Amino acid sequence: MLELFVIGSFWFWALIAVEIVLLFVFVEYENGIGATISLAVFAALLQWCGNVDLIGYVIKHPITVLMALMAYLLLGTIWGVIKWRIFCADRLDDYEDLKSNYLKSKGLPVGTKVVPVELRKEWSERVERTRDYHTKQTIADVPSVQVHKAQILRWMSLWVISVIWSLFNNFLKRVFHSVYKRIAAFLQRIAQNVWSGGNVADDLNVPSEAPRNNEN
Where are the domains of the chain? Predict the structure, then answer.
């Protein structure tokens, strides 16, 4: 038997690094099948091309393996709930951002929270254009657990990778988005103060012609 992936060897750590990268990619692109296959190949390479007897360990320590599996599933379930909460909040933020940009395009004051009655038909049509081909939901629909079942199961089964990816992607993104919202008004005031020092408004101010008196 070729023991290429011996514990502590270069190829052993290279294999682990490759598998971690693959799992991050599969989690990012929501490819549960790819993640499962990569884990199976990873375990097979350690079992038959290394000195890691995974099957023998399971046979000799079934209780330990079962307890570890139960703990993993419990933590995965907890993370699944947390991740679903984050996912729903992100969807609501997407809706609010789309609505904010729409209201701004209609010339309504910044901070308007509710779409005016006279614009709701047009807004409904705009929302309808966001309907997803796969989920059949629009950006305004309450996220459905049944529709996102596979996604939730991926979060739960690959929770370690999902947690790390969320910390470096979703969490940091939300932090910076929150900071931006808080300083946006301040930044706009800076722009207004800088611009007020120029003559842009005067340069573009076209005076209307003085009315002519009708001659009798």
Answer: 1-60
pLDDT at 200: 67
Q: Which residues of 101-137 are buried (b: 16+ CB within 10 A; e: fewer)?
A: ebbeeeeeeeeeeebeeeeeeebeebbeeeeeeeeeb
Dist CA 205 CA 166 (whole Å): 50
Q: What is the mean pLDDT of each run of 10 residues along the chain (216 residues)?
A: 81 91 85 88 89 89 94 95 92 92 89 90 95 90 93 92 84 75 81 76 66 54
Q: Which long-range contacts (CB under 8 A, 24 or more apart) does 70-75 make?
A: 72/159, 73/156, 75/159
What distance in Å separates the CA atoms of residue 119 and residue 128, rounded to the nearest whole number? Answer: 14
DSSP states of 100-160 as a string? Answer: HHHHHHTTPPTT--S--GGGHHHHHHHHHTT--TTT---TTSPPPTTTTHHHHHHHHHTHH
C-beta of residue 90 within 8 angstroms of C-beta of residue 82: no
Per the listing, tokens 């939300």 go with: 174
DSSP assigned state of 212: P
Q: How far is CA 129 from CA 96, 108, 133, in A?
A: 16, 22, 11
- Report the pLDDT value the prediction gives residue 216, as an integer from 0 to 100: 47
